[in-house]
């Protein structure tokens, strides 16, 4: 047997221990279970100390992989909130420096670069995490980009890149982790939608359409992955404080000037910051309540939170003429 086989066998044995420990922790009535948990964690601790890895007890609460964890955004707050629930968080972002503050706590966070547009980047992260920790319990597709501009003049490349990040980026990571989760008959996939889908208005057509596509994919995935023991959750934020407005405006400022919509310039720019008003929910509060919902034994299929989530849910059921009237007023169109 080669060295790689031995290492592989040891890894799968460790992974089986961890899984067993987790199963037993979720069935506290079993007294033999608790003894086994104690013995298992002692063995794991010893093994991890020997290999100078993260202490095993961190692994029992779950390994959570999150995309788009730059400081100031929802992903970063989610990373901290999952860590506060004793999860080991694989925090990822396009650049490590954008989440450098998480680096000081290696027992809670493992940082890795990840660009959801790249197959190679996604595969590298998933295989590194599986090799190092033996499992991925929760994947949070948080990375996303807002895109503002009138659809009639929006460069198609902008529409494409919005879909590439928000839709195909999410699906890319899902396809990379599903084989692993399906083999364990266990896992949770969290996609980040948006309440804007419930009342699509002017100036953010590309973004809203991409999130609508993600909502649809999420609904299908929930049914298709159910038989493999994988929960799929649509987290639908209302207005949550983050960098989303600044990023959208930075992107918009690089687009060619509009011809037909010059008079709406101010309204278009304001749309980028629509979710960033004084009443927007702090990302920490959003993250704490989201994590509580995701970590439930039976997590909800749809979880919405933040200002506008109730209004948009009502809006969704209004007749189109009323919906249009309200959106024209709000978006100055
Ligand atoms: N804030 C809200 O009110 C709100 C409302 C509804 C939905 N959402 C959704 O919530 C999620 C988080 O957004 P946010 O509000 O926290 O905005 P944010 O602060 O701008 O965070 C977005 C994150 O996505 C990352 N990202 C963008 N493209 C990426 C790529 N190709 N690969 C990997 N990461 C990438 C960004 O990285 P960089 O820092 O490198 O750009 C950033 O870390 C998004 O899906 C967004 O659509 C937010």
UniProtKB/TrEMBL annotation:
<comment type="similarity">
    <text>Belongs to the short-chain dehydrogenases/reductases (SDR) family.</text>
</comment>
<dbReference type="Pfam" id="PF00106">
    <property type="entry name" value="adh_short"/>
</dbReference>
<protein>
    <recommendedName>
        <fullName>Ketoreductase domain-containing protein</fullName>
    </recommendedName>
</protein>
<dbReference type="InterPro" id="IPR057326">
    <property type="entry name" value="KR_dom"/>
</dbReference>
<keyword id="KW-0472">Membrane</keyword>
<keyword id="KW-0812">Transmembrane</keyword>
<keyword id="KW-1133">Transmembrane helix</keyword>
<dbReference type="InterPro" id="IPR036291">
    <property type="entry name" value="NAD(P)-bd_dom_sf"/>
</dbReference>
<dbReference type="InterPro" id="IPR020904">
    <property type="entry name" value="Sc_DH/Rdtase_CS"/>
</dbReference>
<dbReference type="GO" id="GO:0016491">
    <property type="term" value="F:oxidoreductase activity"/>
</dbReference>
<keyword id="KW-0560">Oxidoreductase</keyword>
<feature type="domain" description="Ketoreductase">
    <location>
        <begin position="62"/>
        <end position="238"/>
    </location>
</feature>
<dbReference type="InterPro" id="IPR002347">
    <property type="entry name" value="SDR_fam"/>
</dbReference>
<feature type="transmembrane region" description="Helical">
    <location>
        <begin position="54"/>
        <end position="79"/>
    </location>
</feature>
<dbReference type="GO" id="GO:0005783">
    <property type="term" value="C:endoplasmic reticulum"/>
</dbReference>
């Amino acid at each position: 047997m080669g060295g790689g086989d031995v290492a592989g066998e040891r890894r799968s044995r460790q992974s089986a221990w961890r899984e067993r420990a987790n199963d037993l922790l979720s069935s506290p009535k079993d007294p033999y279970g608790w003894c086994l948990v104690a013995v298992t964690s002692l063995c794991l601790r010893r093994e991890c100390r020997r290999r100078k890895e993260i202490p095993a007890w961190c692994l029992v609460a779950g390994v959570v992989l999150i995309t788009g964890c730059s400081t100031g955004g929802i992903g970063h707050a989610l990373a901290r909130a999952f860590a506060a629930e004793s999860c080991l968080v694989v925090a990822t972002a396009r650049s490590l420096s954008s989440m450098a503050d998480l680096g000081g706590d290696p027992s809670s966070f493992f940082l890795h670069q990840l660009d959801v547009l790249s197959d190679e980047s996604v595969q590298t992260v998933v295989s590194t995490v599986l090799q190092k920790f033996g499992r991925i319990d929760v994947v949070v597709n948080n990375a996303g980009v807002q895109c503002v501009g009138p659809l009639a003049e929006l460069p198609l490349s902008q529409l494409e890149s919005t879909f590439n990040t928000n839709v195909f980026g999410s699906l890319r990571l899902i396809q990379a982790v599903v084989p692993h989760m399906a083999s364990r008959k266990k896992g949770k996939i969290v996609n980040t939608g948006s309440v804007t889908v419930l009342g699509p208005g002017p100036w953010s057509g590309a973004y809203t359409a991409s999130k609508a596509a993600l909502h649809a994919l999420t609904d299908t995935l929930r049914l298709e992955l159910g038989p493999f023991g994988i929960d799929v959750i649509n987290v639908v934020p209302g207005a949550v404080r983050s960098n989303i407005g600044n990023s959208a405006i930075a992107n918009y400022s690089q687009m060619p000037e509009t011809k037909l919509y010059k008079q709406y310039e101010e309204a278009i720019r304001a749309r980028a910051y629509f979710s960033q008003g004084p009443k927007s929910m702090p990302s920490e509060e959003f993250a704490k309540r989201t994590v509580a919902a995701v970590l439930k034994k039976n997590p909800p299929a749809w979880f919405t939170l933040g200002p506008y989530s109730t209004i948009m849910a009502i809006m969704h059921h209004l007749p189109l003429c009323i919906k249009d009237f309200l959106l024209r007023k709000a978006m100055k169109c």
